[in-house]
Amino acid sequence: MADKENKVVKKAHYPRNYQLPGGVWRFSRSRMYHKRGLFRIKKDKTKKEKPKRKPRTVVKPIGGDKNGGKRLVKLKKQRKYYPTEDVPKIKKSRKMIPFKNHKRNLRKRITPGVVLIVLAGRHRGKRVVFLKQLTSGLLLVTGPFKVNSCPLRRINQIYVIATSTKLDISEVKIPEYINDKYFRRKHVKKPSKDDGDIFDTKLEEYSVSEQRKQDQIEVDKQLLEVIRKHPEKKTMFAYLGSMFSLRNKMYPHRMKF
Q1: Are strands 114-118 and 70-74 parallel, antiparallel or unpaired?
Q2: Rg (the chain; Cα; Å)
Q3: What is the mean pLDDT of the chain?
Q4: Is 110's pLDDT higher than 90?
Q5: Is 162 within 8 Å of 116 (Cβ atoms)?
Q6: Of 83, 86, 115, 172, which cross-links 165 as Cys (Cβ 3.0–4.6 Å)?
Q7: Looking at residues 36-57, what average pLDDT do you find?
Q8: 56 and 49 Cβ atoms separated by less than 8 Å
């Protein structure tokens, strides 16, 4: 019992050096070198033995009655033939694998129903809802269109910021035919010079098909019902309808989305 009473209980103490509010350390490296007394520690000046190299040659005597000399024999013989040009080695690269067989990765934060901030394109700054990932690896998103005029479209995940806001879209049914081929534009073939007018210089204008308009209405209808069931539906409508922008003293690396 006496031994236990005589033991000194060590209390936890704060570190000697710490960061100030501005991100600068209180003491510099040279100051901490003297505070810790590292100059008193004597360095070990014993020289390390260099590893012995293996002999490359062996001395062999030359046999015979009239001989009696010695010669050096290399343990590893040199190559007798060297190609004049370096033959390129075929390495397995991603280019050799077809694009359709490439592995599609997705960020952990991007899950169906997460609200994303678009950073590029004509809809940059808008907040959109992520629906699913297509076979090409692109993300299928929508505004909805009635809220912020962003239609069903594809976007690369490197051009979006995933936020902590999420909607439950488990009941939203997306047609299976909405895939990468669905978004391909159909170019009308121009008539040949013999069939058409040679002075016809009108440019072909892109117009949205009726099928795509109908699909947009059906998907938005389901998505708007999900937003209306949200406990903070007014805030959610205002949040999706507002534009994201950085103002004075707003730093992206310090923000929590």
Answers
A1: unpaired
A2: 36
A3: 84
A4: yes
A5: yes
A6: 115
A7: 84
A8: no
User: What's the N-to-C CA distance of the chain in angstroms?
Assistant: 58
Beta strands in the chain (DSSP E): 57-61, 70-74, 114-118, 127-133, 139-142, 153-155, 160-166
Which of 15-19, 88-92, 109-113, 245-249 is modeled with the greatest confidence? 109-113
> Can you give the pLDDT at residue 255?
86
Q: Residue 185 to residues 175, 177, 204, 210: CA-CA distances in angstroms? A: 19, 15, 12, 14
What does the pLDDT read at residue 188? Answer: 64
**How far, in Å, CA of 131 to CA of 121, rounded?**
19
| Alpha carbon distances (Å) from 109 to 106, 119, 227 | 8, 17, 20
144 prior amide bond cis, ω within 30: yes
Dihedral pair phi/psi, residue 233, rounded to 5°: -70, -40
How would DSSP label each residue in 14-64?
A: --SS-B-TTS-BSS-HHHHHHHTTGGGSPP--PPPPPPPPPPSEEEEEPPS
Instruction: Tell me the C-alpha distance between 60 and 70, whole Å.
Output: 6
pTM higher than the cut 0.85: no
> What pLDDT is stored for residue 142 in this prediction?
93
Tokens 């940059």 label which residue?
124
Q: How far apart are the C-alpha atoms of 31 and 23, rounded to whole Å?
A: 18
Q: What is the pLDDT of residues 244-253, one digit of tens each?
A: 988 888 888 8
Residues 6 or more apart whose Cβ sits within 8 Å of residue 250: none
Contact 110, 130 (CB under 8 A): yes
Rounded to the nearest 5°, which phi and psi values hold at 216?
Answer: -65, -40
Residues in the chain: 257
